[in-house]
Amino acid sequence: MAAQSHSVTAVSLRGVGKTFANGVSALSDFSFTVRDGEFVSLLGPSGCGKSTALRIIAGLMPPSLGQADVLEGRRRAGEIGFVFQEPTLMPWATVADNVRLPFRLRGDAGGDTERKVAQALERVGLAGFAGAYPRELSGGMKMRVSIARALVTEPSLLLMDEPFAALDEITRFRLNNDLLALWRMLRCTVIFVTHSVFESVYLSQRIVVMTPRPGRAFRELVIDAPYPRDEAFRTSADYAGYCRRVSETLAEAMADNTGEAA
């Protein structure tokens, strides 16, 4: 994968609005920019349009208003990986077959496919589970398979929609650490959706705090803590201070009355 430059804009949303056929307005005048190689979190309450924003970025749905730009060629080249809230694995297929799915969908059965599948599983710590079935895996392991499937095409942009929300705290902490290690190794751009203040602070370089529906970018906060981050950071005064600041900003955003109630 080519080296990333923080001076290059990877994703830009300008004045994006999204209203669904049933009349629900999910986003209104939503704008933010992500630079190449950044780790940015979208933080807000359930129903504020975070997932909708990711789907617009991925090209899975069009905005009703505004402009959503992704670095030239990434949508066409399939350089976007998407990790959904649920692992969405095929129960009848092995772990390796689930990870291989992106290649099958685009008709790519090249000789390098098996190496990439094995490499993706190794990166998420599942090298010994290629022949296992989803029913044989824990919740955390299923999510690792989902991450491996998103990484197998070596995307330069990784979109993650609350992937760890349903996991226990110990597993969630471990996967947070693993995700940061993968991000630093692959040098990809990550946009991570969460409603956890603590998770957003631990992972991110920047946090975009969103208002209740219809979602807008209320404020951006920089988490100026060095990587790698570990348990020492998680128990530090700096971490507690960042969490307090983000919590206060989220409370301000929730009280914002320029939009509809969620």
Detailed description of the structure:
There is one protein chain. This protein is an alpha/beta fold and 262 residues long. The model is unreliable at 1-5 (pLDDT under 50). The strands form two sheets. It has a six-stranded mixed β-sheet with strand order 5-6-7-3-8-9, with helices on both faces. Helix 2 (95-105) packs across helix 3 (113-123), helix 2 (95-105) packs parallel to helix 4 and helix 3 packs across helix 4. The longest helix has 19 residues, at 237-255. 37% of the residues are buried. It has eight helices and nine strands. It starts with 8 loop residues before the first strand and ends in a 7-residue tail after the last helix.
Question: Could you write a compact summary of the structure shown?
Answer:
The chain is an alpha/beta fold and 262 residues long. The chain has helices spanning 50-58, 95-105, 113-123, 139-151, 169-186, 197-203, 231-234, 237-255, and strands spanning 9-19, 25-35, 39-43, 65-70, 80-83, 157-161, 189-194, 206-210, 217-222.
